[in-house]
Design brief:
- There is one protein chain.
- This protein is mainly alpha-helical.
- It is globular, with a radius of gyration of 29 Å.
Length: 767
């Protein structure tokens, strides 16, 4: 992070910024050819005669008005009935899922992945949505994600429109929403123009932006000019900004193929911090595949230690998959400050897959305790997956009591995924204590994915205290997916206290996502008014997603009070991403002194700025409430500056004090500093109004004080308000004295202070 000094002639210094955490990318190789696209008996909802890509995609007027989709009609044409309990497609899905469970229970990861392709590849398109719903019962996230990833790709290749409608008809927090972009990418590779037309017809919000960005990537690879033209005409500023930067990134990546060192130097010179960090990571990781020593030397030349660790971790993980002992030797030769314990977890998890017993022996012989703990944990996970009995024998040979208990708990947790009854009996043999509580929790979670009724009965018998409160509601939620009435009966007849409250909320939300009508009938029939309110509030987001008009009518029919306020606030949240005007009308339903009114305006403006910052800004400035106008001005400036800080800064400086100039300038400063500290600090230096400048400087100081306390101290000293100046000097000095006490002590004598101020600052320094 680079910032200039506050109106002083001093060379700026490079400040490392925390790099983004390592993103592990799941790559699925598809076996076999394309399936025949399924289109039987469903009316087309896309205009196949619209202009071809790329000439047509940049023209917003080519949008087909027929894309106002009737999801129920699509479901009927696909024979999708969420409430149906029989039918050939449902039976087909169940039989396939049973086969999948059998494969998962006995085979290793590589084998079950191939088996997954075989099972899903044989499914008819009509059975896919039912199979997808059944997959939600799988407990292990990576297994569930991998299977759903394959199902979605299968569906996208056979019928992308049907897959999209199914996803959009699911609840807002549905896991299927994560796959929307994937469907569009698959569709675009088969038939680009209809995919782009459909994506443009999506309602506003993050989903639409993410999908369009994915499609723009595909278009850019063959026709950059059309891609940028489309981005500029979509009315989404952050996409326009992102696409225009592609002209900067692509040449550097191309250069890296021939001269990675020169490409790295150019990447490090980029001013946009996110672009710089992402590009540096790509260059060095590709470099490591051909010259691992050169790549690691290059990593150590980066100023940001956190980014050094992130990139090194990725290199080590890739290398360990080929040569775990070589990877271990590799990190033993790295500087101490660069190696983190999780490096050892990466190596030993790979090693255990290749030779479990060898990895287990090596993990126990590591000298450093924190590294040994990570290695043992990785080995324990693999023991639980392969042979729990041998793993428990190995675990009991560990000398450290705490490590031994942790390993046993981890092995039993994985064991429960394969043999829950046996694992539960083993857990019950332990005396009451922490390790027994941990095992009960992990067994219940794994068992619940296959037989929630049995897991719930067992947990209800053995779980106590906090363990009971944490696991029972989740099991109730799992049971309600297939047997909601049984789950409801259990909650009302067997539970009490906090466990009952939590289970009630989870049951309401889960039930509503599967059978809204029945769930609403149950919730509104609850005799306890507080429980009814809790259930309705919990299920409100799902109800608003599935039946917004019905939800709006219900909330309007309630008597004034907290429940109505809560539900109407959820209506506003849903409308904010669909219809700003209607959302504003609903916000006006709250009385002026109601805090839900304030929160609703924040929700609306935040969504509006992402779509049209100029219109949102004009609306905010027309508000009569001074406090609300100032607070919302800060929101507008902060979000706007995420993708166009120059325009946001210009708008903020044009405001008057009463319009919220100080709040807006502060919002710009905080956001801009995280993106491009040098440009942001140059702008802050030029702010003429002292009060507004102080607010911006405060944001700057908060951003840089951990990485460059010296620069932060000088900035704090430049503040005009004496009280704010002293407070910020104290904040920086407190941090600086822990990093470099001698430099911090000297700094107190380098600036002008009264005797009382100097005494207050010196009191923060170590004596």
């Amino acid at each position: 992070m680079t910032s200039i000094p506050p109106n002083r002639s001093r060379t700026g210094k490079q400040i490392p910024f925390i790099a983004a955490s390592l993103i592990i990318i799941l790559i699925v190789f598809w076996a076999g050819g394309r399936w025949e696209r399924y289109r039987a008996n469903r009316p087309s909802v896309l205009d196949k005669n619209s202009p071809p890509v790329p000439s047509g995609v940049a023209d917003e007027q080519t949008l087909d008005p027929s894309l106002n989709i009737d999801v129920s009609a699509v479901n009927r044409s696909h024979n999708i009935d969420p409430d149906s309990s029989d039918g050939p497609e449902i039976e087909e899905a169940r039989e396939a899922f049973d086969s999948l469970r059998e494969a998962l229970s006995k085979d290793g990861e590589f084998t079950w992945t191939l088996e997954t392709y075989r099972i899903i590849g044989a499914l008819t398109p009509e059975a896919l949505p039912h199979f997808l719903e059944l997959s939600n019962s799988l407990q292990l996230p990576h297994v569930r994600f991998g299977i759903q990833n394959v199902v979605i790709e299968r569906w996208a290749e056979t019928d992308p429109e049907g897959a999209i409608f199914f996803i959009l008809d699911s609840s807002t927090n549905s896991p299927y929403r994560n796959f929307l972009g994937k469907v569009y990418r698959v569709w675009a590779q088969m038939d680009l123009q209809p995919a782009v037309s459909s994506a443009r017809a999506l309602t506003g919000g993050d989903a639409r932006r993410n999908v369009l960005q994915s499609l723009l990537d595909i278009i850019y690879s063959t026709d950059p000019e059309s891609a940028i033209s489309l981005a500029n005409n979509l009315g989404i500023p952050n996409l326009r900004y992102w696409m225009n930067q592609k002209d900067v990134l692509e040449p550097i990546l191309k250069l890296a193929e021939a001269d990675p060192e020169e490409a790295l130097n150019r990447a490090l010179g980029l001013t946009d911090q996110n672009q710089r960090n992402n590009l540096v990571g790509q260059i060095i990781q590709n470099w490591a595949r051909i010259d691992i020593e050169g790549a690691l030397n290059a990593v150590q030349g980066i100023d940001d230690l956190n980014q050094q660790k992130s990139i090194t971790s990725s290199i080590v993980y890739d290398f360990a998959a080929k040569d775990p002992t070589g990877a271990l030797t590799l990190i033993n030769g790295l500087p101490d400050g660069l190696v983190e314990p999780y490096f050892y977890h990466s190596i030993f998890s790979q090693w255990a897959k290749i030779n479990l017993k060898e990895a287990a022996f090596a993990s126990l012989n590591l000298e450093d305790r924190k590294f040994r703990s990570q290695a043992i944990s990785a080995v324990a996970q693999e023991w639980g997956n392969e042979n729990s009995h041998e793993g428990l024998i190995w675990a009991n040979s560990i000398e450290s009591n705490q490590t031994r208990q942790n390993v046993i708990s981890q092995i039993v947790s994985n064991w429960a995924g394969r043999e829950p009854e046996a694992a539960s009996q083993y857990a019950e043999s332990f005396p009451i204590g922490q390790i027994r509580r941990e095992m009960i929790g992990s067994i219940a979670r794994n068992w619940g994915s296959s037989d929630p009724a049995a897991a719930l009965a067992w947990a209800d018998r053995v779980a106590i205290g906090e363990t009971r409160t944490s696991i029972i509601p989740n099991l109730v939620s799992q049971l309600s997916q297939n047997s909601p009435l049984e789950a409801a009966s259990f909650v009302t007849e067997s539970l009490s206290g906090n466990t009952r409250d939590s289970a009630l909320r989870q049951l309401a939300s889960t039930w509503a996502s599967h059978d809204l009508q029945s769930a609403v009938a149950w919730m509104t029939s609850l005799p306890d008014e507080s429980e009814m309110s809790a259930a309705l509030n919990s299920a409100g987001y799902v109800w608003a997603e599935r039946d917004l008009e019905g939800f709006m009518a219900f909330s309007d029919s309630l008597d004034p009070g907290e429940l109505q306020n809560q539900l109407q606030a959820q209506v506003v949240g849903r409308l904010a991403n669909e219809d700003i005007g209607q959302a504003l009308e609903w916000a006006e339903k709250f009385t002026p002194d109601n805090h839900y009114r304030q929160n609703s305006y924040h929700t609306i403006i935040n969504a509006w700025v992402n779509e049209n910052p100029q219109d949102a800004a004009r609306y905010v400035q027309g508000l009569e409430d001074d406090n609300l106008r100032k607070n919302l001005s800060s929101n507008v400036a902060r979000i706007w500056s995420n993708y166009d800080p120059i325009q946001a800064a210009q708008w903020a400086q044009e405001l008057s004090v009463s319009e919220g100039s100080r709040e807006a300038i502060s919002g710009v400063a905080g956001s801009w500093m995280r993106q491009d500290p040098l440009s942001a600090s140059e702008w802050i230096n030029q702010i003429p109004d002292e009060n507004a400048r102080d607010g911006a400087v405060q944001q700057l100081v908060y951003t840089v004080q951990n990485e460059d306390p010296e620069a932060a101290f000088l900035w704090a000293d430049s503040m005009a308000d004496s009280n704010m100046r002293l407070n910020m000097l104290q904040s920086v000095l407190s941090q600086w004295s822990r990093q470099d006490p001698e430099a911090a002590k000297a700094s107190v004598w380098d600036i002008q202070l009264t005797d009382q101020e100097r005494q207050q600052l010196q009191a923060l320094l170590p004596q």
